[in-house]
Amino acid sequence: MNKMAKGALATGVGVALLLGGGGTLAIWNDSANATTGSIVAGNLDLESGAAVWKKSDGTVIPNISNYKVVPGEVLKFEQPLTIELSGDQLKATLAPDFGATSNGFSSQLSYDYKITQAGTELKGRDLTSANSGAALVTATVTFNKAAGNDTRKATQDLSKITYKLDQVIR
């Protein structure tokens, strides 16, 4: 093979390697940035105010920790909440959790509650950003009238009642 043929063959192999091996020749190209903008995460927040405890007749109990409850008694409390839901597709549910009070004589207590906002019941509803703002919890705690002697002088910590604002994932 002469020098000219060997040179042409080497050039051909080099070009083939450049084209097939990921190398580039002077081929025009261009790029552009996407004009999609940014996204911002929303927020879910819940704050609780001071609870007010009352006897069943409506009389305010100044310090619930000093109050001596008896079987058959019904106590009521009201507690303001502030709800913040920020998100175009955000949905959440709100409910108290009385399970954290499982100490003392909790088996002898029953709970019922309502959560209202501007007169509308929120219990069992999906909340949206339209529900951001003030809400009010009203609840009753009933001491079983058939409670046994083992509940005498027992202490039940009700400060462990919590509220859960949970995002609804769909």
TrEMBL record:
It comes from the Bacteria. NCBIfam families: cognate_SipW, exp_by_SipW_III. This is Alternate-type signal peptide domain-containing protein. It comes from Arthrobacter koreensis. The lineage of its organism: Bacteria, Bacillati, Actinomycetota, Actinomycetes, Micrococcales.
